[in-house]
Amino acid sequence: MHEDIYFSGMKTIGLIGGLSWVSTLDYYKHLNMLVNERLGGDEAAKIQMVSVNFGEIKKRTLEDDWAGITTIIGQAAQTLEKGGSDCVLIGANTMHRIAPEVQAMVNIPVLHIAEATAAAIQAKGLHKILLLGTKYTMAMESYKDILKKQGIETIIPDASGIEMVNEAIYKEMGKGLFLPETKENFIRLIEKMSNQGAEGVILGCTEIPQLLQQKDLEIPLFDTAYLHAKAAVDFALKTT
Questions:
Q1: C-alpha–C-alpha distance, residues 157 and 88, integer Å
Q2: 153-162 pLDDT, tens per residue?
Q3: Which pick of 13, 29, 42, 192 has the fewest CB atoms within 10 Å?
Q4: Using CA atoms, how far apart are residues 235 and 23, in angstroms rounded to an integer?
Q5: How far apart are CA 145 and CA 97, in angstroms?
Q6: Which helix (H) or strand (E) holds 202?
Q7: Residue 219 CB-density burial (10 A; 0-12 exposed, 13-18 middle, 19+ buried)
Q8: What pLDDT is attached to residue 4?
Q9: What is the pLDDT of residue 5?
Q10: pLDDT tens digits, residue range 205-217?
Q11: Are 36 and 3 in contact (CB under 8 A)?
């Protein structure tokens, strides 16, 4: 009788999704594909997910109510921990503003998206990086500090560039809209910043990789959702 062989030592990845649902689809895909690439056969990731209401998160973000957001995300993390997850992924760059507060609410590790991204940039030997994301992410000093610890200087666009990127994320990409003219605007912005010394680009909103792919530009792109998922798979499959 044939017996299936599976990896019994896999840890469970806890994913906080809905930030937005568009990028959560990518997280689920990346996690499962990466596990299967590593283990082969029919292997897939062990995932638990709590999906929050992006409408409420967006409203509180615009109101600068980070305490309220911390409560929502923190409770989601606690639910994952109680359900048996071994780590937590907050499925959005912007929400990592409250990652330390969420970590204080659980006893399992909250894997930080900027740490995963910094490791990939360092591996490429790059030292000056353009960060694109919501205006909150681009202004997040804690995100830049993580990169700085790895010898990476972070630059961001000017005010008009920040506004263009932020508007595209909240009014289009978060709703699953990826417009050709928006793609052209991003490419022009990246080329401009490349001329100012950017050696690579952090796609610091987990929806941007659905708008831009590496084939669109010569400068290296760093897909934060993919890198975050990879860090989680590395954690889940680590046997020591």
A1: 31
A2: 999 999 999 9
A3: 42
A4: 21
A5: 12
A6: strand 200-203
A7: middle
A8: 60
A9: 67
A10: 989 999 999 999 9
A11: no
